[in-house]
Amino acid sequence: MKIHVRYQDLSLSRRIALRVLAAFLATVAFLRVSTAIIHYQLFPHGPFRDVITKTGLHIHHLFWGILLLMITGFGALASRSERWHLRIAVIFGVALGLTLDEFALWLRLADVYWTHEGIESIQAVAVVAAILAAYGFGLPMWHALLRGAWRGVSGGTE
User: Fold this and answer.
1) 97-108: per-residue pLDDT in tens?
2) Which of 92, 93, 120, 156 has its CB 3.0 to 4.6 Å from that of 104, i.e. a possible disulfide?
3) What share of the chain is helix, strand, coil (3-state, %, to 5)?
């Protein structure tokens, strides 16, 4: 069972899923590295610092993720252009990464990023990445497996 599909031959929904997946994983990787640099103060005079207002309020990247999710949601609903949906998919992937990287924060309503409970964010990221990958990459495989199983059940006639 050999499956070879070019990106341009994929359906719009699968191309969107793959773009969301790529942007999502890149964002989560960047966030994990940059927050580790901040947390462990690897570059104390570098560009990575906590975002804190003059009043002492720490702004989590969850905030920016929710804001981008609202914007991309409206953009996707307002647009019918395939070209725009493919562009919005990348921004949506970034927003999804910003949001789910702090999943444990909004699940527990506490800043548990660097605690044992913070693993819940990694688990949420893994689940979403698996779903996006299964849809984006796995659809032809599932179709081929089902066709093969159907041929086996029906005796090779369709």
Assistant:
1) 999 999 999 999
2) 120
3) 70, 0, 25
